[in-house]
């Protein structure tokens, strides 16, 4: 399928409107892009989280594809069972090979934290599925708590800004690198603002015959504290400040997918969202400098891995 | 060698084998040929999955095994596979089930007919790998059907009946059938298996009502239920459990026509004119049966009521069996800490009360962490309930057998 807006506008939407995600939520945008790029037929496994609770309130469903939710941590195991069932039934001639595809949606809590073991096991076993992490950098469904993905210095309700401690104290784990260390065929980072890049990545992942992973930065305006109209703008700004790089590791080959002409300072990222507002205060200047240094260091390392000029 | 009738009228010859409980369950799994088998090793269940792995490695089954990274993942993969319309089976014990606990409820709440071959083992701490029933008692409220087996033969027979019960359209619930860790799982006994062909015919093919893999009819599994629907769906699970009480004997009857072996919700021994009864589950029933025979020889009207189907609890059948008895010794191989008696005792007591039976009952805790239960312990229990019947005094209600105090 050609990724032109004209062609995409003709597609049937398998993710129905009328769901109860918040206005401006990036998740529905990403899910539509992923499902359009993947094409039918597909089975989706969804970890517990905003997407799951907002799209499946009985007796309604937003899913015009087969969809299963089991629990918070185990979406990768659940899809392992579905994918294995498919292989078994096709092998035994109990069903036709219809080219079924398997996709997981899980938030950063489900992916970085509580579901890490389950994801690692499924990747190691080599099931054919695409795992999409809808990474909004905190536990948003429970009301904005810090996760292993929350950036250092960020305000959340469990890493509040107090007299003694200023937001989250730790850097996030590099989940994409952890996944890549499993040696699976395709791993990438993406943003919904660069939709063609994201959809191309989904197509590559689906075509790769094995476990694949795309970590998508997914703005949550309730937790990030920005206007509902700014979802795409902040996604773009993440890539322009290089706090979130978009790249892919295709069968072991690293490739950078976007390099800003001029890297914007991290303060612009902080200015765009209320979760960082405390960082702009003079007393936190030293911390901001440290955070900028970390971004610069990580960006340089990424450029080197991707064979780009540093 | 026994011969028996299949429902079609064909005679089936049983094949005698010498196997332990773990291996015979693996053999039953081979014959059932489930589509998907997610497994994770844990003592003393490991023998099941390693024996089954050999069948897979030798191409003797079509099953796809998933060597998951935990029991929680094993049950999660069973849920995915079953929702995809596949026959899914797994096996576990003790800490493995404790780790699965969250998703046991997902399996039953989603009405997925998953079969779990279960080996009973104590729970930590302290760490102990030997038999008691604490593990399966932890799942007694989880919406799974629970059958308790006594020996190697029953482990095999229950495995085959389990799939039929779970998949029955009136039931559609997951099922676990248990065997006592080491005592049965690692004890070699003579047992008869059915020919492959007879098993295939008995279990039939599975046609799921809803499958994730039907591209023409996409389905949503595991949606959110709020205040307006959750309660009704839970009530429907209760219906499934209640209907299982009817389906389990039907399946048993059909199995009896095939194998010649009789099964019920309960397994009574010398109960008709008994006055003093021991209620028991699992492997210790064999020991207790021997003691009952001995006591009968001495003119004591002893009887034994083995509970095969623990969930759903066959309350009416238990009431009918205990009506008019003088005293009952309820044997519990698990503790419900802080409760006024332990799991089986609480169920039996509720029956005595609900059906207004004038039968005295006391609770005997035995065999925790694999502590041997000897004939002398069962004798002691009978002696104590003879006294209970005489004096009418049940205090202390909870007593311990074979314990140093």
- Physical arrangement of strands within the biggest beta sheet of chain B: 12-14-13-16-17-18
> What is the 3D form of chain A?
globular
CATH topology of chain A: Rossmann fold
Percent strand of chain B:
15-25%
What is the residue-mean pLDDT of chain A, rounded to a whole number?
97
> Roughly how many Å is the radius of gyration of chain B?
21 Å
Low-confidence stretches of chain B: 1-9
Order of helices and strands of chain A: HHEHEHEHHEHEHEHHEEHH
Number of strands of chain A: 8
CATH class call of the largest domain in chain B: Alpha Beta
What oligomeric state is this?
heterodimer
CATH superfamily of the largest domain in chain B: Thiamin diphosphate (ThDP)-binding fold, Pyr/PP domains
Number of domains of chain A: 1
- Rg on CA atoms of chain A, Å: 19 Å
By secondary-structure content and strand pairing, the structural class of chain A works out as alpha/beta
CATH topology of the largest domain in chain B: Rossmann fold
In what order do the strands lie side by side in the largest sheet of chain A? 2-1-3-4-6-5-7-8
* Number of helices in the DSSP assignment of chain B: 12
Q: Report the CATH architecture of chain A.
A: 3-Layer(aba) Sandwich
Overall pLDDT of chain B: 96
The separation of the N and C termini of chain A measures 35 Å
């Amino acid at each position: 399928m050609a990724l032109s807006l004209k062609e995409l506008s003709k597609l049937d939407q398998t993710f129905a409107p009328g769901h109860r995600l918040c206005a401006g939520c990036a998740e529905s945008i990403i899910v539509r892009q992923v499902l359009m790029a993947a094409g039918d037929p597909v089975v989706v496994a969804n970890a517990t989280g905003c997407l799951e609770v907002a799209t499946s309130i009985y007796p309604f469903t937003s899913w015009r594809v087969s969809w299963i939710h089991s629990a918070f941590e185990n979406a990768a195991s659940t899809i392992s069972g579905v994918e294995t069932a498919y292989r078994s039934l096709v092998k035994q001639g109990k069903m036709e090979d219809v080219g079924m595809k398997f996709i997981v949606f899980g938030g950063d809590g489900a992916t970085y934290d509580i579901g890490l073991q389950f994801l690692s096991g499924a990747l190691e076993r080599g099931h054919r599925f695409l795992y999409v992490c809808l990474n909004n950098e905190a536990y948003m469904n429970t009301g904005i708590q810090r996760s292993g993905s929350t950036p250092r210095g960020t305000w959340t309700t469990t890493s509040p800004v107090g007299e003694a401690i200023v937001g989250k104290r730790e850097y996030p784990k590099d989940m994409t690198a952890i996944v890549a260390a499993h040696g699976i065929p395709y791993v990438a980072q993406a943003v919904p603002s660069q939709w063609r890049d994201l959809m191309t990545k989904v197509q590559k992942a689906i075509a790769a015959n094995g476990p694949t992973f795309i970590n998508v930065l997914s703005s949550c305006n309730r937790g990030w504290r920005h206007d509902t109209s700014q979802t795409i703008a902040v996604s773009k700004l993440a890539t322009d400040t290089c706090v979130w790089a978009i790249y892919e590791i295709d069968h072991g080959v690293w490739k950078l997918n976007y390099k800003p002409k001029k890297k914007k300072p991290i303060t612009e990222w902080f200015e765009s969202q209320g979760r960082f507002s405390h960082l702009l205060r003079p007393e936190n200047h030293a911390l901001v400098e440290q955070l900028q240094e970390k971004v610069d260091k990580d960006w340089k390392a990424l450029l080197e891995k991707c064979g780009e000029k540093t | 060698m026994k011969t028996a009738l299949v429902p079609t009228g064909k005679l089936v010859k049983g094949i005698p084998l010498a196997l332990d409980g773990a291996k015979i369950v693996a053999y039953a799994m081979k014959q059932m040929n489930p589509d998907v088998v997610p497994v994770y090793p844990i003592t003393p269940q490991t023998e099941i999955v390693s024996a089954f792995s050999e069948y897979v490695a030798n191409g003797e089954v079509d099953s796809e095994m998933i060597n998951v990274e935990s029991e929680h993942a094993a049950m999660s993969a069973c849920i995915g596979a079953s929702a995809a319309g596949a026959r899914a089976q797994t096996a576990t014990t003790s800490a493995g089930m404790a780790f699965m606990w969250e998703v046991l409820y997902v399996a039953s709440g989603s009405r997925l007919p998953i079969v779990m071959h279960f080996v009973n083992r104590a729970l930590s701490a302290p760490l102990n790998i030997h038999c008691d029933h604490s593990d399966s008692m932890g799942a007694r409220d989880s919406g799974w059907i629970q059958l308790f087996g006594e020996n190697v033969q029953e482990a095999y027979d229950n495995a085959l009946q389990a799939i039929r019960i779970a998949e029955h359209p009136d039931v559609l619930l997951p099922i676990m059938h248990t065997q006592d860790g080491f005592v049965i799982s690692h004890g070699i006994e003579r047992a008869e298996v059915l020919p492959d062909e007879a098993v295939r015919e008995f279990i039939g093919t599975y046609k799921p009502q809803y499958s994730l893999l039907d591209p023409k009819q996409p389905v949503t599994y595991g949606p959110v239920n709020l205040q307006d629907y959750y309660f009704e769906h839970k009530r429907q699970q209760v219906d499934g459990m209640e209907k299982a009480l009817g389906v389990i004997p039907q399946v048993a009857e059909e199995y009896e026509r095939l194998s010649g072996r009789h099964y019920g919700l309960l397994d009574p021994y010398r109960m008709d004119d008994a006055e003093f009864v021991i209620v028991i589950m699992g492997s210790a029933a064999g020991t207790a049966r021997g003691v009952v025979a001995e006591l009968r020889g001495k003119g004591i009207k002893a009887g034994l009521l083995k509970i095969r189907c623990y969930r759903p609890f066959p309350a009416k059948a238990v009431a009918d069996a205990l009506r008019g008895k003088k005293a009952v010794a309820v044997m519990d191989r698990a503790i419900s800490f802080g409760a006024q008696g332990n799991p089986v005792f609480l169920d039996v007591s509720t029956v005595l009360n609900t059906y207004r039976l004038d039968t005295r009952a006391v609770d005997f805790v035995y065999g925790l962490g694999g502590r041997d239960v000897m004939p002398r312990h069962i004798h002691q229990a009978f002696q104590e309930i003879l006294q209970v019947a005489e004096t009418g005094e049940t205090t202390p209600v909870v007593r311990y057998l074979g314990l140093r105090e």
